Amino acid sequence: MNLKNASVLIIDDDLDVLTAVRLLLKTESKEVVTEKNPENIRNLLSKQSFDLILLDMNFNSSINTGNEGLFWLRKIKELGSAAAVIMITAYGDIDLAVRSLKEGAADFVVKPWHNERLIETIKEALRKKDAGKTSAANGKGDKIIGSELLGESEIMQDIFYKIEKIAPTEANILILGENGTGKDLIAKAIHQHSIRTKNAFVKVDVGALTDSLFESELFGHKKGAFTDAREDRIGRFESASGGTLFLDEIGNISLRQQAKLLTALQNRQITRLGANDAVPVDIRLICATNVPLSELANETRFRKDLIYRINTVEITVPPLRKRADDIVLLAKHFIKIYTAKYMKPNLEVSAGAIEKLKSYHFPGNVRELQYTIERAVIMAEGDDLQAKDLLFSPIEAASSEVNDEKEDYKLSTMERNTILKVIEKHNGNISKAAKELGLTRTALYRRLNKYDI
């Protein structure tokens, strides 16, 4: 259906929202009806049929505390309305909005929105209504978002849909998840779907920066600001201005570093080391950490005012063991990459190899799967990749071994011993050791410090 011929009902207890949407759609649609009180939905639908309904997720009347939108969505469906329903939500209710898609909503929009984006969403919902199509969030969406992020499991489809809705906004985003789950790929996908996509995407592993390097790396420095400052250098904030700044391992920075970062974010300007003049910066901030939010809430570890600043929207990336439906998809993706890299184009995966992958719990997540596949492709002989070619992380293998000798069975002891063996195997080469262990260099260095190696 063409929007010009559509009757639209808007239900929101915010008069400003009602006025703004009515004025926007007045010339775009056949008819616009606004309603502040959701209790009047029954009466409205009994008198008139609508092609599209814009429904707020939360009302002051608190019918179902935090779930008012879902309550009224169900009522609209029970009343037999054939209207496409688009949920209106704030950042904090995005998870509920994704849930609404499973209950029959056509789509959702996040406040505040760009008018052009809202009209596009309405037109698409009307088109899907005519075509009888279900939304991508019902688990039938694309298997890839951005250029690299893969997944066909329901939990990843929810994340894909959330990315599509959050990305065009300017909201700061905090990505949570275990090491190796692909938090950096989530950040890239958000940037690629944002209005800043044509500008820079700058990544900084802030967890690896010492106090002395932190300011210079992020804010830049003037020539002579310190001993090795032989020339002026812009920092990552300036490099990312107009684009997206991705701060990885944000949960591992010191309280002093947090204070410096908070000041820059609040003022939206930075001052290079050795300079007096402040430089304005325009960045979209994405942060990531493997530290649970509950630990970040501890003020002896992390400033709450900084948490609120970086966490307008939160995305939790599931470990691979909770998205087992994606293991084969990801494995085939990596096989395609590494058969091309190692010139084994005819290599096929045996049924036994697939079963072995599906039965493993992948404590090292997607990164461990990637390294496992790379090793298997290298070791495979002939045209078949066999189960015996799949060798999982030695750290995880060591922690699950059981023998009858009297040994210290603490996981920490076993992990320390495994790290020592692998480093010795590679003659102290940290990069090679980290790769075999399925860790990043930064993560391995943290373990070296932890175990005093």
Automatic annotation (TrEMBL):
<dbReference type="InterPro" id="IPR058031">
    <property type="entry name" value="AAA_lid_NorR"/>
</dbReference>
<dbReference type="InterPro" id="IPR003593">
    <property type="entry name" value="AAA+_ATPase"/>
</dbReference>
<feature type="domain" description="Response regulatory">
    <location>
        <begin position="7"/>
        <end position="126"/>
    </location>
</feature>
<protein>
    <submittedName>
        <fullName>Sigma-54-dependent Fis family transcriptional regulator</fullName>
    </submittedName>
</protein>
<keyword id="KW-0804">Transcription</keyword>
<dbReference type="InterPro" id="IPR002197">
    <property type="entry name" value="HTH_Fis"/>
</dbReference>
<dbReference type="InterPro" id="IPR011006">
    <property type="entry name" value="CheY-like_superfamily"/>
</dbReference>
<keyword id="KW-0597">Phosphoprotein</keyword>
<dbReference type="Pfam" id="PF00158">
    <property type="entry name" value="Sigma54_activat"/>
</dbReference>
<dbReference type="InterPro" id="IPR002078">
    <property type="entry name" value="Sigma_54_int"/>
</dbReference>
<dbReference type="InterPro" id="IPR027417">
    <property type="entry name" value="P-loop_NTPase"/>
</dbReference>
<keyword id="KW-0805">Transcription regulation</keyword>
<keyword id="KW-0547">Nucleotide-binding</keyword>
<dbReference type="GO" id="GO:0006355">
    <property type="term" value="P:regulation of DNA-templated transcription"/>
</dbReference>
<dbReference type="InterPro" id="IPR025943">
    <property type="entry name" value="Sigma_54_int_dom_ATP-bd_2"/>
</dbReference>
<feature type="domain" description="Sigma-54 factor interaction">
    <location>
        <begin position="149"/>
        <end position="378"/>
    </location>
</feature>
<dbReference type="InterPro" id="IPR009057">
    <property type="entry name" value="Homeodomain-like_sf"/>
</dbReference>
<dbReference type="Pfam" id="PF02954">
    <property type="entry name" value="HTH_8"/>
</dbReference>
<dbReference type="GO" id="GO:0005524">
    <property type="term" value="F:ATP binding"/>
</dbReference>
<dbReference type="InterPro" id="IPR001789">
    <property type="entry name" value="Sig_transdc_resp-reg_receiver"/>
</dbReference>
<dbReference type="GO" id="GO:0000160">
    <property type="term" value="P:phosphorelay signal transduction system"/>
</dbReference>
<dbReference type="GO" id="GO:0043565">
    <property type="term" value="F:sequence-specific DNA binding"/>
</dbReference>
<dbReference type="Pfam" id="PF25601">
    <property type="entry name" value="AAA_lid_14"/>
</dbReference>
<feature type="modified residue" description="4-aspartylphosphate">
    <location>
        <position position="56"/>
    </location>
</feature>
<dbReference type="Pfam" id="PF00072">
    <property type="entry name" value="Response_reg"/>
</dbReference>
<keyword id="KW-0067">ATP-binding</keyword>
